[in-house]
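seq:
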Amino acid sequence: MNDEVAAAAFAESIRQLPGTSIAAAAPPREIDRVEAFAGARLPALHRALLLHANGLTANWGYLRLFGVGDGPEDIGPWNAHETWKFAWPRQLDDYMAIGQSGWGDQFAYNIEDLKRGVETIHRLDHFLMEVADEPVAENFDTFLRVFAERAGRPDERVHEARRQIGDLEPGQLAVFAPSPLLVGLERATHMMKTHARGAMVTNGDMIAQLGEVAHETRKVDRIETYLDDRGRQRAHVRWAR
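struct:
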């Protein structure tokens, strides 16, 4: 099966599932822009899929494959350093996210690997942005199989989130308030929807500040938002005395 046929078959199989949405075909020039941004060619099957379906969501917004273009969650804008990666205390520009979960786990290529033709797709944890020990898939073809399996069989976490806060719209993530980064556990009843970029920036800010405070002395008074000297909304943790 060639890449064009495989991409069309995948998109059609996803289209038949409840809770899915598929965008129209991407202009080839937008794919070229993403490849110029990365300095590497996308896998042929990935490019073929974008030419057939410029991004898609499954699990009622809790599973996403990004498109290309100027949208806030398209591959280029989402991976720009100034979108959200700047807030994190670790190097994330080595990775190019091509999709995410509804909680902000990033599915990403390592750009240097991609330049060498290695298609491995990693998962970066949504709390710490640490790369999981095991990759999501060794290549894009396998990744689509994993995606299709998850799209067809949403796990209980997705169902519980929908019961609490409903479906996610484009540009939204599900977050916990207070964050498990601060209180150590997730409580579904404390879940809420928020803007995806803001959620990623806030998590990065919290991780940076948590590293400066000894674990045994951590007790949060409140989290304040502010604009930094470049006009970006940030989060500051006020520790209880």
